[in-house]
From TrEMBL:
Organism: Streptomyces salinarius
Protein name: Acyl-CoA dehydrogenase family protein
Domain Acyl-CoA dehydrogenase/oxidase C-terminal: 249-397
GO function terms (MF aspect): oxidoreductase activity
Pfam assignment, any one: Acyl-CoA_dh_N
Domain Acyl-CoA oxidase/dehydrogenase middle: 135-234
SUPFAM superfamilies noted in UniProt: Acyl-CoA dehydrogenase C-terminal domain-like, Acyl-CoA dehydrogenase NM domain-like
Residues in Acyl-CoA dehydrogenase/oxidase N-terminal domain copies: 15-131
InterPro entries the UniProt entry points to: Acyl-CoA_dehydrogenase, Acyl-CoA_Oxase/DH_mid-dom, Acyl-CoA_Oxase/DH_mid-dom_sf, AcylCo_DH-like_C, AcylCo_DH/oxidase_C, AcylCoA_DH/ox_N, AcylCoA_DH/ox_N_sf, AcylCoA_DH/oxidase_NM_dom_sf
CDD domains, A to Z: ACAD
Similarity annotation: Belongs to the acyl-CoA dehydrogenase family.
Keyword annotations from UniProtKB, A to Z: FAD, Flavoprotein, Oxidoreductase
Amino acid sequence: MTFSLHPAYDDPRTAELVERLRDYLDGELADYERERGITHATRLTRADLEPVWRRSRELGFYGIHLPEEYGGQNLTYTRLAALKEEVGASGRVLSHCVLGDMGGPLRAGDILKHATERQLSTYLLPLIRGERACCFSLTETDAGSDVRSMRTVAVRDTGDGRDGYRLTGHKVFSSAGPFADFAIVVARMAGTGEREGDKPRFSAFLVDLDSPGCRVEDGATPMSGEHIESDVVLQDCYVPAANLLGEEGAGMRIALGRVTTNRLLHCPTVLGATRRALRLTLDRTRTRQVAGQPLLMLQAIQHKVADMATELYAARSMTYAALAALDQGREVPAEAFMCKLFVAESAFRILDQAVQIHGKEGLTQGTEIEYLFRKIRMFRVLTGTSEIQRNGIAKVLAFQH
């Protein structure tokens, strides 16, 4: 893999998909955002998003990773990563809607294989078609990295002819919650994990967000300034047994399923955003005049951008190497931890230098480089902190011979 700020691909299929995606992101989608005045701080509505879901589906991008039976193209992980990288590098506000990251097929994850025919027809197939949206509700205020300490409880309810569960709890950081129709909620089964030595059992449910006893509230605004998070508050919310995903007690396995793959697939989007930051920085250093010459002529600046490019190349190379191994059917738990750790930390260092080089512009709200700095900083915490990744690497190494 060679270094480039505009990657090309030897594989004709990947090259064709990337080129078509770039055309859409830089052309039609850019025009759509400009016409509607959409920025990263905009409170997005379904009216903003549904046209993008539908158009992305028409172009074959929405859910493109899915098997052909669901209208996808059964992409390899490496091909999907190339598309996710372009999404991150585009600078488009709504780019997260194009492949289905925000409330769409990518957000639903691997639950298709756990769904019943009724769940597929009612929830997941409309989701794939861009007609419905979902959020994933796992995190709680005191249950982030340690998700098994969650307090949301599911109580079996079979009284008066009912066959279902009563859910009570408070979920936070439910991305896409402000415009979702239903949530994938993980809850602890009542009566389990309440005494020392008693192992908790968790189940996953499809919860309609307009159900009695379910309330969607404005979530905390993350440092990126985006309004895409919600709290999902459940108070004795009845969920029919038909909405149980998989078997009772299998919720954590479903929630954390394909965790290695998902950890890896978060990296290309961040790499794309970092690539864009490097491009913006190079543009700045070529046009900014200092003492009658471009900023890039100063050796101190040359060394900074050289280090930035080198770290990006290293992070991108290791990520795609791990994805290629995954495509070959190999297990890559250590590599996934390493990629998440190195991409998060190196991307942050690159963005920190980008802000430094941009000077006042890098500190000014409303500029893209300042937004990217805030966005990239979050990745050191989201989807598992850097400390959690280090724990994972050490644990894998401890059992290697």
